[in-house]
TrEMBL record, chain A:
<dbReference type="InterPro" id="IPR028081">
    <property type="entry name" value="Leu-bd"/>
</dbReference>
<feature type="domain" description="Leucine-binding protein">
    <location>
        <begin position="54"/>
        <end position="415"/>
    </location>
</feature>
<dbReference type="InterPro" id="IPR051010">
    <property type="entry name" value="BCAA_transport"/>
</dbReference>
<feature type="compositionally biased region" description="Low complexity">
    <location>
        <begin position="27"/>
        <end position="39"/>
    </location>
</feature>
<dbReference type="Pfam" id="PF13458">
    <property type="entry name" value="Peripla_BP_6"/>
</dbReference>
<dbReference type="InterPro" id="IPR028082">
    <property type="entry name" value="Peripla_BP_I"/>
</dbReference>
<feature type="region of interest" description="Disordered">
    <location>
        <begin position="27"/>
        <end position="47"/>
    </location>
</feature>
<keyword id="KW-0732">Signal</keyword>
<protein>
    <submittedName>
        <fullName>ABC-type branched-chain amino acid transport system component</fullName>
    </submittedName>
</protein>
UniProtKB/TrEMBL annotation, chain B:
<keyword id="KW-1003">Cell membrane</keyword>
<feature type="transmembrane region" description="Helical">
    <location>
        <begin position="81"/>
        <end position="107"/>
    </location>
</feature>
<dbReference type="InterPro" id="IPR043428">
    <property type="entry name" value="LivM-like"/>
</dbReference>
<feature type="transmembrane region" description="Helical">
    <location>
        <begin position="285"/>
        <end position="306"/>
    </location>
</feature>
<feature type="transmembrane region" description="Helical">
    <location>
        <begin position="160"/>
        <end position="185"/>
    </location>
</feature>
<keyword id="KW-0812">Transmembrane</keyword>
<protein>
    <submittedName>
        <fullName>ABC-type branched-chain amino acid transport system, permease component</fullName>
    </submittedName>
</protein>
<feature type="transmembrane region" description="Helical">
    <location>
        <begin position="255"/>
        <end position="278"/>
    </location>
</feature>
<dbReference type="GO" id="GO:0005886">
    <property type="term" value="C:plasma membrane"/>
</dbReference>
Length: 448, 328
């Protein structure tokens, strides 16, 4: 018995040593991943040398964001592959850099994120970091990134407040929360100037609150009248009292939602109470295929904002029309490379596209700045505007907030998810006004 | 006061000194060490209650959360006065967590064993829903301080506070909790708690006021949790969200750390916290994605190999040797 324990102890020690050894071995080659060109390039060799440039990333491979984390990692790897193989590497001066993603698992955990950012910045010498997934983790990482002066590009932190704290080195690639429902309002305004009365009913979470306070402001600017504005708590089981109140205000359009379960409940109870309006846009839920599985024809015509969707039409031609560069793989190339890298038939989610866009924006800015200095690249980012598979990329120079990218609006039409807005990304016409619940119950679909 | 009885603090002080030296000299090791120390401090604070009384408090993180809010409110309201806001925050965090522990302790400590554990789970969840439901202190939107602190204290100062000062303070909190632990162990209170942990009824019959000592240990432990929340959470991360801070996950981690190192021992939480933190960090760096599959068996093996915790085991082995003076 005693001996057995000794073996266990010894085994543990060996493992510990092994980890320490592995860790050190990893550190050595990575110690100078971004060598300063003057020092390492021998004078004699004038032809382009290929060196490796690491983009660092804390990825949530385990914990509550593991699904989103895995998708983002694949997206980043696709973008790196495109840069290396199709674009031919990053050309800075007379040197060519191959891009590689150096990632560690942050376990969706704040404490780990901070350590990993420091490790990337100091031990791995990474100058360009892709922010962790979610606004909370991004906020936890920001002070450390700022301390070491490394750039951090947010591809999964949508909240506006991250960019209101005065962090210079933090920039954003995805649309901020404040823009989630504004595109839908623009769309309704463009189709039907008669629709005036907006009802808002949404989950009481930090995220939904920032979405809908911005939506309210935007609606009022567009001349809508917000006739109903109420929240429901997280984990709600019954929305009928609040929806009865809503019904009494007789709205033209409804915007609302929060997460999946409440979004689905919201739509099914709107159907039960026969609250008919001209258009409905719900956060998150309708963007997922299981929404239609759960609701069937009741989901017809329901719209939702999405950061990106398989089938968007952003392309080199669309970019040319707008007079901006197109950079990165086309939609088809992206789908194919994604399949190769992920090794599965699972289609990419928007998390993959936004992470890829973040990598592409670094690459584009580095080539524009012709420098690997984070300060120069950050400065170059102020002026660049380009399109990639994910849409436009342009930041507000002051805050680093994304202002170029627009949310796409999807709508369920005849059992498929169609992209209806903005026009340059759309693959279908909006179906407006949507069929009434009675019509849907008789099997009417939102197809012309 | 018998100095010899404080000898076990020596190995601890040496280990902390080594950690600080490593953190300051090895590039990129400061944050990981701060991260290990967060676990050490959490374990050390929780040990005062769990380790000494044998009661499992599943709502422990509520004190941490309240402490975090105490500091956030102090910075928000007194930030314009300058850095004085931070000591005010520490006091506020202490006061708030101790008040809550009085309220919880008065009710829940009348229960025993599993019933106590069940009663305390509610405290944490209840608090979170209270904040969110009543929209108290920012409700679901929490309190985000980074920008405000940068305006109030300056950019450099804020960076210094959240990436250095807070980490050093965590060392101090962990050490202070250890000093309190050994003081309790050396006094009548320690013997009373030992008696109550082994057999509460017998202790009561012997004339020990078990409720009094339980509540004392509970309040002390909760106060330290409040300090950890104020320093390692708010000052370090510069924001508080109710959902993140009142997360039962941290309670579970604290229990694992105390058990791993040895409940009721002085050095146990330090060993447990370091083991847990180091395993978690290096596994996520070396085996990103599958580290939990490795971490879980490692934890199970450790617990099976050392049922009384690592320190408990070493202490038993070292009995009657000169080493035993330094182990507690």
């Amino acid at each position: 018995m005693r001996k057995g324990w000794m073996f266990l102890v010894a085994g543990l020690l060996v493992m510990a040593l092994l980890f320490a050894g592995c860790a050190q071995q990893q550190e050595k080659p990575a110690a100078t991943p971004t060598p300063t060109p003057e020092k390492t390039a021998p004078e004699e060799k004038k032809e382009a040398q290929v060196e490796t440039l690491y983009f660092g990333a804390p990825i949530s491979l385990t914990g509550k964001f593991s699904k989103e984390g895995q998708m983002s990692l694949w997206g980043m790897q696709v973008a790196a592959k495109w840069i290396n193989e199709v674009h031919g590497g990053l050309k800075v001066g007379d040197k060519v850099y191959k891009v590689e993603i150096k990632y560690y698992d942050d376990q969706s955990n704040k404490e780990v994120v901070q350590s990993i950012i420091e490790r990337l910045a100091v031990q791995d010498g990474v100058k360009f970091v892709l922010a962790p997934y979610s606004s909370g983790l991004t906020l936890a990482a920001a002070p450390i990134a700022e301390k070491y002066g490394v750039l951090m590009n947010s591809h999964g932190g949508a909240s506006d407040y991250i960019f209101e704290q005065g962090y210079y080195y933090v920039v954003q690639t995805l649309s901020p929360a404040s823009k989630y429902q504004t595109g839908f309002l623009d769309m309704v305004k463009a189709i039907d100037p008669e629709a005036k009365r907006v009802a808002m009913v949404y989950e009481d979470t930090e995220f939904s609150r920032s979405v809908f306070s911005a939506a309210k402001k935007h609606a009022e600017e567009l001349g809508f009248e917000v006739v109903f504005d109420k929240t429901y708590p997280k984990g709600v089981q019954d929305l009928s009292p609040i929806l009865n109140e809503l019904k009494a205000t007789n709205p033209d359009i409804i915007i609302g939602g929060g997460h999946f379960a409440d979004g689905q409940l919201l739509v099914s109870q709107l159907a039960d109470l026969k609250i008919n309006v001209k258009a409905i846009s719900i956060l998150v839920a309708p963007a997922l295929p299981k929404f239609y599985d759960a609701l069937g024809t009741r989901a017809e015509g329901i719209a939702a904002p999405a950061q990106w969707e398989v089938g968007v039409k952003y392309s080199p031609e669309a970019a040319e029309k707008l007079g901006v560069d197109y950079f990165g793989p086309t939609q088809d190339e992206f789908m194919q490379m994604f399949k190769e890298i992920s090794g599965s038939d699972e289609p990419p989610s928007y998390h993959a596209a936004e992470a890829a866009a973040a990598v592409l924006s670094y690459a584009y800015a580095i080539e524009k700045a012709q420098s690997l200095d984070p300060d120069k690249v950050r400065e170059a980012m102020n002026d660049i505007e380009f399109m990639c598979l994910y849409g436009l990329w342009k930041i507000d120079p002051e805050t680093g907030k994304q202002v170029g990218h627009e949310m796409v609006i999807i709508q369920w039409q005849g059992g498929t998810k169609k992209i209806i807005w903005p026009p340059e990304a759309a693959n279908a016409e909006p179906y407006y006004p949507i069929p009434t619940w009675e019509e849907k119950a008789q099997g009417k679909l939102a197809v012309k | 006061m018998n100095i010899a009885r404080y000898k076990p603090l020596l190995p601890m002080a040496i280990i902390y000194a080594v950690l600080i030296v490593i953190g300051l000299t090895v590039p990129g090791m400061w944050q990981p060490i701060a991260y290990f120390m967060f676990y050490v401090a959490l374990g050390q604070a929780f040990n005062i209650f769990l380790g000494l009384t044998g009661y499992v408090d599943f709502g422990y993180v509520a004190f941490l959360g309240l402490g975090a809010y105490g500091m956030a409110l102090a910075i928000k309201n007194f930030g314009h006065l300058g850095l004085i806001a931070i000591p005010i925050g520490v006091l506020l965090a202490l006061t708030m967590s101790i008040l809550l522990s009085l309220a919880v302790g008065a009710v829940a400590l009348r229960l025993r064993g599993a019933y106590f554990a069940i009663a305390t789970i509610g405290v944490n969840e209840g608090f979170r829903y209270l904040l969110e439901g009543v929209r108290l202190w920012g409700g679901t939107e929490g309190i985000v301080l980074s920008g405000f602190m940068r305006k109030a204290f300056g950019r450099e100062m804020t960076n210094f506070l959240s990436t250095f000062v807070s980490d050093v303070l965590v060392f101090i909190i962990a050490f202070a909790a250890a000093v309190i632990t050994i003081t309790i162990l050396n006094r009548k209170m320690g013997y009373a708690l030992l008696a109550l942990r082994e057999d509460e009824d017998a202790a009561r019959v012997m004339g020990i006021n078990v409720t009094k000592y339980k509540i004392m240990a509970f309040i002390t432990s909760a106060g330290f949790a409040g300090l950890i929340g104020a320093i390692a959470w708010t000052l370090k991360l510069t924001y508080v969200f109710p959902e993140d801070v009142f997360n039962i996950h941290y309670t579970v981690e604290a229990i694992v750390i105390v058990m791993l190192g040895g409940a009721g021992t002085l050095l146990g939480p330090m060993v447990g916290g370091l083991l847990y933190g180091i395993m978690k960090y290096y596994l996520s760096v070396v085996f990103p994605g599958i580290q939990l599959l490795i971490l879980a068996p490692l934890l199970i093996i450790t617990i099976v190999a050392f049922p009384e915790g690592v320190v408990g085991y070493v202490k038993r082995k070292a009995q009657n040797t000169r080493l035993s003076e330094y182990l507690r």
